[in-house]
Every structure is written in structure tokens, then in C-alpha cells.
Amino acid sequence: MALKNLRGRVAFIFEEIDFDVDQIVGVKNIKIQDVAELAKVAMQAYDPDFAKVVQPGDLLVGNHNFGYGHPHYPPMRAMRHLGITGVVAESFSPGYWRGEISMGFPQVSCPGILGLVERWDEIEVDWAAGVVRNLTRGREIAFEPLARADYEMLDAGGLLQYLKAGTAA
Amino acid sequence: MGYTITEKILARAAGLPAVRAGDEVMAKPDFVIAYDFPGYTDVYFKQMKEDFGIDKVAEPDRFAIFIDHMVPTATPAEEELHIITRKWCAEQGVPLFERKGIGHQVASEVGYAVPGAFVVHFDGHISQLGTFGTLAMGIRRNLLEAFVRDHVSLRVPQTTRVNLTGTLKKGVMARDVFHHIVRVLGPASCRFQVLEVGGPALDEISTEGLQTITGLAMFTGAVTAIVNPSKKRLDYALPRARKQIEPVYSDDDAEFAAVHEIDLCNLDPIVVIPPSPANTRDLADYLGIEVQAGYLGSCASGRLEDLRAAVQVLKGRKVAPGFALHIVPTSQQIMADAAREGLIAELVEAGAFVSSPSCDYCFGRIATMTAGQKAVSTGTLNVRGRMGSPDSEIYLVNAAAVAASAIEGRIADPRNYL
């Protein structure tokens, strides 16, 4: 078992420290269940054309303490629906981190990422080498290794699959 | 090198002689606690059976379920959720606490805050059991792991220690102490760590106040908070403890990621301005902002000391005309004690709307605000939409400041009324 490297463009950089991810869909839309509806309202406050320009495989980049506040699941459900495959941030808030890892959604804690990339750069998260690589600019920096359980949860595709695999073993 | 209280608790829970911060362990929670909430408990009950083929939990007394949200129910769907919960608990023999109050508080009252115990919940405010030397963590949806396995996977957290010195000035409460910690240390200061509160002035803080401080730990980035329990906390916790566990304490030479000192003498009442719990400011700089509602309650307030502070301010005075002051004692026990003490009568006569315990005021399910309205609140959180419209605003203050603001209809300084 090995996680597949993430490779895609930096679709957006959230520069705000302590970023509250609920802002991605807007609090007034947080109760929408339908993921296509959520995807339609996502990023309206940041880039109204986001849904049009994002491509499958793209990644998001964040600043320190990404996910602070009272994070809900719909914003990142919307992002995954739009093709986003992971978030690379300077650091994460633990509640958000745990929630998204349990959804099987890769989160990469990478101090220095904001200095490494610009929007639309092509990047790669190389799990085995432990680095985030900027393919556009030919530079790379190390990310913080995942806890074993977090790695296995991502590898399994989320909490439920992880627990099922463990129970069967 | 010695060990922190957290390392000692997790070593016992993991069945190991010792663990160190950074170790990855499988730890067996002494208690698994949850309140019924759509997408959480109903899903766990279903997944246990359908995905894992577990018909019965092995040790039902390790589990505790609370019905404290959607109390009282307002829709048939809410009542149906409660019915699922009641049925599951009855079938499983799992203790159910319904309408007894906000679970994080009731858990302490009924003996789950066992000094030295390891407890998990999906909701992070369970950290307030740390008041009694219990290591209680909110692990969000990963709580499923505790429903289908004996152990949960965990990286032993580092600890940031905050030592309190000095004494609190008049009008300054534990609520102010917590937000001062966020202000001084920063909202990411304890990320993935345990916030350990200690120091010579720890016993200056009441047990109720400490429940407030430890219960809000997540806003420093901490995964929980804990104290080394003094005799005062043990005298409360041990007689009602549901499990015999030897209390443990951090060693003098334990290794901390950081140590900070907070002098309580320097603190003044604070306000946390919308829309983030990171926004600690001096209350004095925000006096006069017109507010239409006030909420005194939640798992982070609503205890006797908060109710007494409100009475002290409101006694012989009246809530401003048109101002909606909601006061919600945190548990039935607290409400009964407050009634016996005469506090409820004082609050009602001053014009407060006093309700039985419920979590529902804290997240806008009831007493909902509309666009443009503002509230002062002792609730847990001030993010957009927390108490209704995303275009309403919440200013977090201490209980006395909620009461003072209710009199003036504007954000007010409680010290003018004490």
C-alpha cells in the first residue's frame, strides 16, 4: 500500500491566517446537502470563475492554522466535487485536519509552502520523498511526515474503509 | 526526565509502561461519550451493525450518551432522532442522560470526569473534564473508531504549560482568563498539543471557572486541556467517580513544549469580536455598541458562579425594554441549586427569560437572530451564523458583562454595577 502522489496546479492560495473554511461556500449555504449545489456556490467570494477554471487534480494552498474556527464538512465536499485533490498549508488547525483526514482527503502540513508557490504553478506532493515539489519553478521543500494512522486512513480512502480494513486484518 | 500528566494517562490507556510525546499508540478510552446529533450517533449506530457486524458493544458502561441538543424538540424529525438514540441505548444497556443538562457539564456531575481517565467524544468541548485531571479529547468523526474497536489510534501530544499567578480583579472572570490566554499565546499556540493549566494561582480559579477555561481549549489549537487536580477538584470528582483509577500528576521535571506565565492581576474584562474566537480585545474599547440580545449559558458558562454574577449586576435593576436576555443554567442540577438560592427569581424579576438547560441557544437553533442584529454572549463561539443569520454578530463576554449589557442595551462594563 502506498499513497499515490498528488500532482496538479495550485488552484487557489488562501492567504488569510486562521482561515475559516466555511467561508468557501459561505455560512448561509453551509446546510446545503446537494454537492452539485454546494459546488455552484463555492468560492463565489474569492473567484466567481473558480468552478470554470479548476481542473481535476488541482490543489489548494493555505496559510498558518488553516481550518480554525468551527469547520464544517460541506466546503471541502464541494472542493472535491470540483476536482480538488488535497490541501497544502503552512499549518493546520487540529479539528479541521482530523475531520478531512477522516474523509480521506489529503492534507499536507508544509512550512514554507507560501514562499514556494504562486497561483497556477504545477506542484507535486511526493509522499515517499516527503517533499512538495514546484514543477513549474523547479524547487522543493520538505513537508511534515504524517502520523502512521493518518497515512493509513488516507491510503484506505477514509475512516470507514480504514476501520474496515483493520477489522478484517 | 519526568512525564506529563497526559503522557502518564495515555501510557496507562495504551497498556504501556511509559509513553512520550510523539509516540503513536493505540489507547483504550475509559469512557466513550457522545450526544445524539444527526450524522454522528445515528450514523455510528447504523455503521456498527451494517459495516462491522457489531450487534452489541462489549462493555456498555464504557459508553455514555446524552440528549442535550434539540431539547425540547421542534420537529418530528428531531424527535425521531431521539427515539433512535433511546432505543439503541436500551438495547445496548448503555447509560442515557436525557434532559439532564448540557452533557459536557452533566458528565462531570454523574462521574465521568474521573481523575486520570482517558475519555473521547466527537465534540471538543468535552475537554472541560480536564478540570478534574481527566484527559478528554474531541476526535470528530473518528469517534466511530471508539464505537467499533476497543482502542483508538493516537499520537501522544506535546504539552504547553500555562502557569497562573496573582488574583483576579473585581469584574474579571474565568472567561476573561481563557480569552486572555488566546490573546497572549495566539490561536495556534497549542496546535495538536495539550494545554496544561497550573501555577500558584490555579486554586484562585473556581472549579466552575476552570470548566470554562478547559472547555474552550480548542481555540488555542489544543486537542484538550488538563490540570493536575488539587484536593478541591478531587473532593468533587472522586466520590462520584464511575471507575477506580489512581490520579496522576505531571512530574516536576516533565518536558513541556513551552511554558508561559499569566499574571491574573493584569487582566481586565475582554470582548471577543466577530467573526472569530481569535479576536480578543479589551472590553473597554467596545463599550456602547448597540446589542439586541444577550445569552448567558452554554457549556462554557451558565454555572452557579455565572448566574450569581448576573444577579449581582441585575439585582434591583431591569433589562432594557425590547432587549432579549436569555439565561440558561447549564444543567438541571445547577438550575435547582440556583432556584434554591433565589437566583432564578432575581433574574426573572429583572426581566430575563430563563430557560431549562439545552444546547440549542448556543448554535442558533432557538433564540435565532436575524440579519443586522447583534448579541453579547457567553456561548462557545462567535463565528458567522452561529446564532442565526450569517449577517448577525456575536460579541463574546463574561456573564457579568452580558447582564450589564442587558441593562443598557449596549455593550457595557460590568464593573459599573458591581
Can you give me a brief rundown of this structure?
The complex is a heterodimer of chains A (169) and B (418). Chain A has 169 residues and is of the alpha/beta class.
Task: Please name the defining characteristics of this protein.
heterodimer; A: 169 residues; alpha/beta; Aconitase, domain 4; 7 helices; globular; B: 418 residues; Aconitase, domain 3; five-stranded parallel sheet; 12 helices; 18 strands; 28% helix; 18% strand
Question: Which SSEs are present, and which pair or pack?
Answer:
The complex is a heterodimer of chains A (169) and B (418).
Chain A: E1 6-14, H1 35-41, H2 50-53, E2 59-62, H3 74-81, E3 87-89, H4 94-102, E4 107-109, H5 113-116, E5 122-126, E6 131-134, E7 139-142, H6 148-156, H7 159-168
Parallel strand pairs in A: 1-2, 2-3, 3-4
Antiparallel strand pairs in A: 1-5, 5-6, 6-7
Helix pairs in contact in A: 1-3, 6-7
Chain B: H1 5-14, E1 24-27, E2 31-35, H2 41-50, E3 63-67, H3 76-92, E4 96-98, H4 103-109, E5 118-121, E6 135-138, H5 143-148, E7 152-155, E8 159-165, H6 174-185, E9 194-198, H7 207-215, E10 224-227, H8 231-240, E11 258-263, E12 270-272, E13 280-282, E14 293-296, H9 304-314, E15 324-327, H10 332-340, H11 343-350, E16 353-354, E17 374-377, E18 393-396, H12 399-408
Parallel strand pairs in B: 2-3, 2-5, 3-4, 5-6, 8-9, 8-11, 9-10, 14-15, 14-17, 15-16, 17-18
Antiparallel strand pairs in B: 1-7, 12-13
Helix pairs in contact in B: 6-7, 9-11, 9-12
